[in-house]
Amino acid sequence: MALKYRSFGRSAGILAAGCLAAGLVLAGCGDGAENTGNYPGGVVNVYNWGEYIDEDLIGQFEEEYGIKVIYDTFTTNEEMFPKLQADTSMYDVVCPSDYMIEKMIQNDMVQPIDKSKLSNYKNIGTAYLEKMEEFDPGNQYAVPYTWGTVGILYNTSMVHEPVDSWDILWDEDYENEIIMQDSVRDAFMVALKRLGYSCNTTDESQLEEAMLMLRDQKRLVKAYAIDEVRDKMIDEAAALGVIYSGEYLYCKEENPNLAYAVPKEGSNVWFDGWVITKGSQNVENAHKWLDFLCSADAAYKNFEYITYATPNVAAQEMIEPEYLNDPGVFADEQTIDRCEVYRFLGDDMDNTYYEFWKKVK
User: Fold this and answer.
1) What is d(CA 289, CA 268) in angstroms, rounded to the nearest whole number?
2) Positions of the chain with pLDDT under 50
3) Coil vs helix vs strand at 86
4) How far is CA 283 from CA 24, 28, 91, 288, 304, in A?
5) Contact assessment for residue 72 and residue 18, using Cβ atoms and an 8 Å cutoff
6) Cα(133)–Cα(111) distance, rounded to whole angstroms?
7) Residue 224 CB neighbour total at 10 angstroms
8) pLDDT of residue 31
9) Which stretches of 156-283 are assigned E, i.e. beta strand?
10) CA quadruple 3, 8, 9, 11: dihedral positive or negative?
11) How much is the pTM?
């Protein structure tokens, strides 16, 4: 398999925030009124992370279904949420992350998916659906799109000991060689897991303990970053960095010295999934979009492009063993079992986490 292009969607939507272009005949950001005369099937308004799809798939869908895709992108879940909360009819299908899907369900912003309209839903592995039930009971509202873990990217020429514990991020030998995620939940997950706690804890005494641990670590940290983790590790500006597994394959291809590990204490296993908004004006077309992306060919093509792990087991059969068997790309069952999905803990607890994070920063 030849990987065609690397996208950087989930890590912060860092390459694009606005309309997807690259030669596609799109109508513009959210405006379904333009240039739709050649599409007898109408339109579907899609809201996705920046650079998080093989652009060719959009044109392929339009050609096969006669449906115009109006495509917008967002950079974070938190950017997307208030826009949809103000008007869920702005988009038909959206691709939030696990905890945000749960928040949108609780805020009555999404509608149940009619799986009888998804002939390709059978391609989604049951193990992934079972894990998603933690934030979407009964798999009523979301269709998984990509998944992965949070772990440690490390340089094998700079780190000569096993990277099997979060403890290494507190090792004095790596002062100014450590990059942490500039993310409240991800940073606290590292400390909470190191302490043996749940990354979804609501116990403020545990959060305070984690905060003190992160403050103690701060003197060793070279930088707090999101997208820059990838770049600094490729350039060997640091020895260790906390990163999303979806970034690992690109990093490894750019710098063969890089490897990826999920510590023994456990980590976060994350899912991004498609939902249909409560106010969707094109519900039938939204289902067609989901069914199209669930096809084996589309999921395989998407993996080639974005290199984030797919939950589509039919597509997995088409992926070369060197990628499928790489635990940095597709975590094995034992790794997933010791990981937790982020849950939406409520607005008050979100604020509590943020207040503790301010004390760290």
Assistant:
1) 28
2) 1-8, 12-34
3) helix
4) 23, 20, 10, 9, 29
5) yes
6) 16
7) 17
8) 43
9) 178-181, 221-225, 240-244, 258-261, 269-277
10) positive
11) 0.87
